Amino acid sequence: MTAHVRLLLAPFDPARETSEFTLRYPEAGGVVSFLGQVRAGGGCEALELSHYEPLTLPGMEGLAASALTRWQLDGLLIIHRAGVMLPGEPIVLVAAAARHRRDAFAAADFAMDHLKSESWFWKREKAGGQWRWIEPREEDRQDLSRWA
Amino acid sequence: MIKLVFLGRLVDLAGGGEIDIAIAGPTPLEDLLLGLPAPLAEPLADPRVKLALNGRLVPRESLVVEAGDELAFLPPVSGG
What we know:
Chain A is α+β, with helices and mostly antiparallel strands. Helix content of chain A is 37%, strand content 36%.
C-alpha cells in the first residue's frame, strides 16, 4: 500500500505515468486510471489552476492516505497540475492498483470526487482573451456526499 | 510586518497575490481588516473564506496575528 502523490507545475505524460505505475504492481489484478484534461471548445483558450503551497500537496497526501485505509489497494497514484494549461492538456491523473477491480474503481472514483470538490485549487478560464474565475459547482459538492 | 496571501478571485481584489502590512503588536483579525480598503475588507470578512495562519487552517473566531505571521485568505475552492 503505497501512495504516490505529486503536484506539478509543468506538463506531464499520462500514458508514461500510468505505465510506470502499473509496472510497479505486477501483483495487482487490476489498475483503474482516470485522466482529466482541459476540455477543448466552448471558446476556452486556457485554464489556470492556482494553489497554496502549505495546504495543497499535504491535502492531496491526506486524501491518498484516506483512500488507502478505505479500500484494499496495492498502490495509488495522484498527479495534479497547477499553472496554466491549454485545451487538451492533462490536469489530473489518478490510478489505483488493487488485487480486485472493485476496490480500484471505487478508490479512483473517491479520489476524483474529493479532488474536484475539496482540494485547495482555484481555477480560472481564459475565453475571448479575458480571464474569468470559476465558481464552485453544486454538482461537485453533491458528488462528495456519495462517500459520507 | 505581516504577510497577507490571497487566493482565487481575492487576488484580483487585492491587486496581487501577497501584500505586506505593518502592524503594531498582536492584532485581532477584525482590526486588521479595518485597516484594509473596504472593497477588499468586505469579501475577506465573508465566513466562507477560510483562513490559514502560517500554513495551518485556523478558525476566524478570536484570531490574533503577530509580526512575522503569514495569513492566507482562501475562498471556496473551485476544484481540480
